[in-house]
Amino acid sequence: MGITSRNYVRNTIQTVSDNFIEPEYPWSQNSLTDQVDGALDFGNRKSNLGFLFSIQPRIYFESDAPDGSYMSVSYDFYRYNFTIPGLVNTNTDPISSPNYQYLGSKKKEHENISDLMVWFGYQDVYDRISIDYSTGLGIRNVKGMKYYLADDYSTGGTNIFEGYAPYKQTLFNFNIGIKVGYHF
Predict the structure, then answer these.
(1) Is 133 exposed, middle or buried (0-12, 13-18, 19+ CB in 10 A)?
(2) Cα 168 to Cα 117: distance, rounded to the nearest angstrom
(3) Contact 80, 114 (CB under 8 A)
(4) This prediction's pTM
(5) What are the tens digits of pLDDT across the range 6-22?
């Protein structure tokens, strides 16, 4: 069990421009455009504390646990929480194009990541230190909720839609890990 903050590795590998995350917006009009930053853009978005938990039963080969080579199956769950200020149109002229700025109340967003992995590793146990080397393969499911504000100025009127849009993706997951532990 533990806490989460910003997922720097995910934000480095999958940038906003990759278009891997396509929220399920509740409209079908092509003329509507989401004015809010992409789901992984942290220019205006701030991370809040979240949580994680992991369970990983192991089977050790040719040795006494917890020393030696092993195989395991793990389930990991990560909850990342974010806030982003709501967009506000600061242009007072109703005929002109809007000028949106992040000046509104904070909007809560989140992203849940769940991994189902098969791990192969080796653990050395010393007097006070243990070192674990491992490699894992599996499936990652990502589900999140993103704030949106969409507008349609193509007809000369102002149709504004604001709310939350869910997004999801399923990915192949590959991990390499080194863990160092201290024991009494």
Answers:
(1) middle
(2) 19
(3) no
(4) 0.85
(5) 888 777 776 655 556 77
3-state secondary structure at position 106: strand
90 touches 104 (CB < 8 A): no
3-state SS assignment for residue 12: helix
> Each residue of 24-47: b (16+ CB within 10 Å) or e?
ebeeeeeebebebbbbbeeeebeb
73 near 117, Cβ under 8 Å? yes
| pLDDT for 77 beyond 60 | yes
Side-chain-side CA neighbours of 25 within 13 Å: the count stands at 21
Cβ contacts of residue 147 below 8 Å, gap of 6+?
A: 36, 84, 86, 107, 109, 163, 164
CA atoms within 13 A on the CB side of 179: 13
Alpha-carbon distance of 83 to 116, in angstroms, equals 28
Helix (H, G, I), strand (E, B) or coil at 53: strand
